[in-house]
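---------- Forwarded message ----------

FYI, see the DUF433 domain-containing protein record below. Original note from H. follows.
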Amino acid sequence: MSDQRLARITLEPGKCGGSPCIRGYRLRVSDILSLLGSGASLSEILEDYTFLEEEDIFAALEYAAVQLSHPVLIAA
């Protein structure tokens, strides 16, 4: 996990309902994940969102991985 990479993810209560965004822009981490899940390539995303950098996309993926890495407790 890279703290420098994750610093690209911002949380602002009044922006996008407090959802994690990319570098303060109104583009949510979930938007990036949806684009990738729909089959968009890195180059397509970067072409459509010219303010983005490749590292922003990797930051979104890393942020999602960190959020999903919580331990799962199973009740006996």
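H. also flagged this: The beta strands are 9-10, 21-22.
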